[in-house]
Amino acid sequence: MSHWFEDFTPARGNLPARAWVRSDVPTLSLNGGWRFRYAERADTPADLADPALDDAAWDEITVPGHWQLQGWGEPAYTNIVYPFPVEPPFVPDENPTGDHRRTFVLPDGFTAGDPRVVLRFEGVDSAFTAWVDGTEVGRSVGSRLPVEFDVTDALAGTDEHVLAVRVHQWSAASYVEDQDMWWLSGIFRDVTLLARPLDGVEDVFVHAGYDHTTGAGTLRVDTPSPARLLVPELGVDVATNEDVTLERVEPWSAEVPRLYAAEVVSAGERVRLRIGFRTVAVLDGVFTVNGAPVKLRGVNRHEVSADRGRAVTKAEMLADVLLMKQHNVNAVRTSHYPPHPAFLDLCDEHGLWVVDECDLETHGFWLLDWRDNPSDDPRWREALLDRMRRTVERDKNHASVVLWSLGNESGTGQNLAAMSAWTKDRDPSRLVHYEHDWAVPYADVYSRMYASHAEVADIATRSEEALPDAEADARRRAMPFVQCEYAHAMGNGPGGLVEYQDLFESSERCMGGFVWEWIDHGLRQQGPDGRERFAYGGDFGEPLHDGAFVADGLVFPDRTPSPGLLDYAAVIAQVRLRPEGTRLRLTNHYDVVDLAHVRLRWSVADEGIEVAHGDLPTPDLAPRASVLLDLPAEVLQLPPAVGERWFTVVAELAEETGWAPAGHVLGRGQVQLVEAALPKTPVAIAPVRRGPDLLVGPAVLDARTGTLRALGGLPVETLELSVWRAPTDNDRGEHGEPLEPTWRTLGLHRLRHRTGSVAVSERDVVVTGRSAPAGTDTGFATTWRWSDVGGAVRLEVDVTPETPGGLSVPLPRLGIRLALPRTLRRLDWFGRGPGEAYPDTGSATWTGRFSRSVEELQTPYVRPQENGQRADVRWAVLTAADGSGLRVRAEPTIGVTVRPWSTETLDAATHTSALDDEGRIWLHLDQAQQGIGTGSCGPGALPAYRLQAQPTRFVLTFEPVV
Ligand code: GAL
């Protein structure tokens, strides 16, 4: 027995797709509380349609919203695999179904002039039927696409009307909506009733170009029936469907999002538009807008709210846009469906280049070698074309949209070709994007995801491997290149951003890229322990799921920026300051504007303490131009440095903008003026033996075993070699380079320690030992040399890996760890900060003096993993509330990680909420760590950032602070 929604093109009653506009026709929002009844199957009687049905016993649901987040059914997460058997167009009998009902009264405006009454749904997941006053008004699929039904003839009586909507979770359409995200159902976007006058503006299509050679604008606004176009600021008052040339207009760009208020007026309707003039073109293989090459510094954005799923609020949309702008992001790919229409308005207004993607993904067919892939099956042709039409028609008037994307990961095929052909015909003013066919038969740009640095380098220089078909190869080689996804921001990372950005900037062919992805899709949930947490795949008991792979964003589920976003902002900064010798080079990486809006401030700090500061004149720099900044005269006249001296320049907004206040930091650069003085050669003082202990300055060692007992009066529970870190998502390398399994097989997470000898001499105590996992002859020989250097103890550690045949993988980390009393609660340090940094991350950090509580040092990655290292630390002080504590000095630097739980606890935890303070402080001091890379989906750490096991020495001095 099959259902209506088990059909390739099941829609009925839908009106032709048209632009989303603001108009003066009367509307009635039907958002709010609806009556709701839930069923596990789709084949229950459709009694909801009956206006007489008494729904008093039903529950209430909020529209827009997903029922799984309001108490019915459960969210489920799969990345690629379909959560149902693959036999299109059929879906299982277990098909959660939500019956929604509400009443409405037509407001006055709805009757004047006898308009048609139109019911509009902005998004319903996945298939639904709607009835008004007992009459079916339409059926539709296309979860992230709008649909309208004419309900005029169904309206019965004059008073209260009954709207009933039955929504099914699964439908044939689910096969083409296999995006990597939560499966969530319901009426999750707005529902509106519109009074459409017969003499209204049925549709509007704005064509607004800019000629960069003359400064002229071209304008034509198409409407299906006659109307007038008014652009008061430009003195335009013409009929629609006419070409207008305007001698001088200000163009729209993401940097200067100039919009002109316009109106399209017919006898019965007034539509308000905001027009941006811009021309998108590929010129000599370069992506340009208004004649200027444009680099996309983008992010992939899913619509996510930790509490409401894809039913995002206006405030969340605005937060996304403002956060992007504040972090130097200039482009968004609306992965993998058209966003809520209001989001694109915000992009027009604040300035973001948009790749608007159709609601299409059939990735699950990849697991079946693409057998019966809808993209190439004629039975799906109309359905796919319908999706593309609804995308383009809805969003065609947004200046911000510069590329149409056919969809994501849907293989290749004739239906994609048809979608592309239709799009190019309908809107030749924009480019077409599609990633999954590398021969690029029907797109205008060559797009790839997760290509390695080496491959991007080849493409950047147009020396990539040739396609077998010479003609196709020539066409592709002439195209601009974009990484529509790269730098998988899952957990700690992504690493390797700088190198990608350098490649993008090395070649005009590169349009830039879009980091995967903007936000973690964690859903707020009460865990089984009663604590609040962000849920990921499996947390709702799904039998089939992809775990934490859904949490891979630059912002946490609550939109707090992660260190990855801060790094990205620094790497793509348009106002870039990079050291060159003893000076800073300032480069304008904007595509359009100069630096007139930028204020430069400088400061000089000795050992992290500011000794001078001032303002620098902002040089007049055109896009892509750069200049070496001279040191201010004052700096040259400063007294000799006390310790290390650094010169810092911060570029900030001189004045407030629509997206950030004056003083907002756009870029930062530092150069070292004076290096650290070499540590004085320590004068060693002979160890003292007292009872069973050896006293070496402030260190107390067990005379027999060499074990450290205390440091400066602080009891020490553990001091040992540590090569293990709580594997990051990138170490796990689910869709890239997996290191973790090999690390675990080697047993690096379970070292056992043996003391070899304890030798006490006139100068020092030397303890030798070996640390190694059980069951293998791989291990690390260690020598610990302790010497009293007058009030402090110096520790020299030598580590020699003993790995017969060599290790096939890099080590996670190489350092020592100590367990210290929990009374220590704060870390002050001189090194890089304020945030975390690993060998290939931390672009957002700089050298200075910082202070953080132990709690503030933790980064709450949704799935717990290694985090929080402060890098290149010269010295650090851990203090208790009374100011007493322990100072560590490195020769020259060390990585410092401090946490109130052990690495083992961090490793074992599945959610941050499960991390309990252990009542002691774990201090990791690392000579090195393995780079982070982006191996969770893509390449692992670059060779320069890999921690190869080799003989290593590091030197630390511990000193009590009283
Ligand atoms: C891509 C895909 C995205 C996401 C990402 C991994 O292949 O397009 O939707 O799944 O990988 O997080």
What are the key terms here?
962 residues, mainly beta, 12-stranded antiparallel β-sheet, 8-stranded parallel β-sheet, binds beta-D-galactopyranose
Structural class estimated from helices and strands: mainly beta
Helical residues, percent = 10-25%
The overall pLDDT, averaged over residues, is 97
Helix segment count? 12
Q: Which ions, cofactors or small ligands are bound in this entry? A: beta-D-galactopyranose
Question: What is the count of β-strands?
Answer: 59
What is the C-alpha radius of gyration, as a whole number of Å? Answer: 31 Å
Strand content: 35-45%
Separation, N- and C-terminal Cα atoms: 81 Å
Sketch the major β-sheet: 12 strands, antiparallel
The gross shape turns out to be: globular
Low-pLDDT residue intervals, each spanning 5 or more residues: none
What does this structure look like?
This protein is mainly β and 962 residues long. The chain is 11% helix and 37% strand. The protein is built from 12 helices and 59 strands. It is globular, with a radius of gyration of 31 Å. The mean pLDDT is 97. The site of beta-D-galactopyranose has 12 residues, from loops.
Helix and strand topology:
Blueprint: E1 22-23, E2 27-29, E3 32-41, E4 59-63, E5 76-78, E6 94-105, E7 116-121, E8 124-125, E9 127-132, E10 135-141, E11 147-150, E12 160-168, E13 181-183, E14 186-187, E15 191-196, E16 205-211, E17 216-222, E18 228-231, E19 236-239, E20 244-246, E21 260-265, E22 270-275, E23 280-283, E24 286-289, E25 292-293, E26 296-300, H1 314-326, E27 331-333, H2 341-350, E28 353-357, H3 381-395, E29 401-405, H4 414-426, E30 431-433, E31 446-449, H5 453-460, H6 470-477, E32 481-486, H7 497-506, E33 510-515, E34 523-526, E35 532-535, H8 563-571, E36 575-580, E37 583-588, E38 598-606, E39 609-616, E40 626-629, H9 633-636, E41 645-653, E42 665-674, E43 688-690, E44 693-696, E45 699-702, E46 708-711, E47 714-715, E48 718-722, H10 729-732, H11 740-746, E49 751-760, E50 765-773, E51 779-788, E52 793-802, E53 813-821, E54 826-833, E55 846-853, E56 870-879, E57 885-899, H12 903-908, E58 920-929, E59 952-961
Helix pairs in contact: 1-2, 3-4, 5-7
Residues 79, 180, 336, 408-409, 449, 485, 488, 516, 549, 552, 937 line the site of beta-D-galactopyranose.
